Amino acid sequence: MTKSFLKSRELVLGAAILALLLAIASRFPAFIGPSNLANVFNDTAPLIILALGQMAVILTRCIDLSVAANLALTGMVVAMLNTLYPGLPIPVILAISILLGAIMGLANGLLVWKLDIPPIVVTLGTMTIFRGIIFLISDGAWINAHEMSDSFKAFPRAAVLGLPVLSWIAILAVLGFTVLIGRTALGRAFYAVGGNPHAAVYTGINVGRTQCAAFVLSGALAGLTGYLWVARYAVAYVDIAGGFELEVVAACVIGGISIAGGIGSVGGALLGALFLGIVKNALPVINISPFWQLAISGSAIIIAVAFNATSNRSRGRVILKKAEHAQ
Q1: Nearest-angstrom CA–CA distance, 75 and 172
Q2: Distance CA 315, CA 8 (A)
């Protein structure tokens, strides 16, 4: 039943994206050209990567509001390293980014697991701390394109088979998460912990450790995205990706990942991110004000949550009817 529900959500969202593209094409036909759609996907790639990590966290009944601050801090650190050591190989920079992001995710996970602090409180606090650390290490200064090495800036933009490396990393993240969620014990544990944490304990799953693992995964992806973001836009500063964590959560909610935990899919997270990415790229092109971008995104979130709540209520009524009939 859960699988059919998820498929219906994905079909509805896929149809909405198609209808949105057709509506945009009626005003600006060039938008649906292959090269432009590839650019839209590339612009949305950071959101896709972060939404996948956020999905893992939300599946376990938690939330990570520090992903954008994690991204910004990691981006600033690797940008500063690049100015000090311009010859540092890209694989080393990638490893540092992932490791630093994972450490910040681990800090979130341990606070939630060991101190039993609500995840929203923990990640709101660490979000502020991470932003503060950026200011301390940079003294509020920007790192601009001319201070970064050419190889540092070129990596996410390099084309492979017609797509930038940034897009390929998003595609690999989607494929990797599909395997993780569907084929591994950890992926099944995410669903078990979110669906029924008390039952998960009886099956031998450590709830706190599983939630911590989800935070580490989300943090590692945020760290990776931090380097990709800074290198692609060739700038690092304190407020980079400010407010982006809300877009990440929105992508998950629109994609059908239940805030209550235990329900969601990789396809849903991908479609939710693509929906927001298309809206963000299309509305300025057809001369619609940024207000409507926010209004459409907000309306989509409300509709998605209402759809979730209605579905859950209907399933609840069926159970009650069966119970009454049994009596």
Answers
A1: 21
A2: 15
Locate tokens 């999905």: which residue? 55
For the chain, the first-to-last Cα distance in angstroms comes to 24
The span from the CA of 39 to the CA of 210, in Å, is 36
- Whether this model's pTM surpasses 0.85: yes
What's the pLDDT tens digit per position in 54-77?
A: 999 999 999 999 999 999 999 999
Closest C-alpha to 71, from 233, 216, 244: 244
Strands (E), 214-266: none
Residue found under tokens 């994972």: 102
**Distance of alpha carbon 227 from alpha carbon 104, whole angstroms:** 15
Complete DSSP assignment for 166-195: HHHHHHHHHHHHHHHHHHSHHHHHHHHHHH
Please give the structure tokens belonging to residue 17.
């994206």
Q: Show the tokens assigned to 163.
A: 């797509």
Rounded Cα–Cα distance for residues 63 and 88 (Å): 34
Burial class (CB in 10 A: 0-12, 13-18, 19+), 49: buried
Q: What is the pLDDT of residues 268-301, one digit of tens each?
A: 999 999 999 998 888 777 777 767 767 776 777 7
Q: What angle is formed at CA 54 by the lines to CA 203 and CA 145, rounded to 5 degrees?
A: 145
Q: How many CB atoms lie within 10 A of CB 98?
A: 20
What is residue 262's DSSP assignment? Answer: S
Structure tokens at 319: 């159970």
CA-CA distances (angstroms) from residue 143 to 73, 137, 240?
A: 13, 12, 11
**Residue 48 has which token pair?**
């896709």
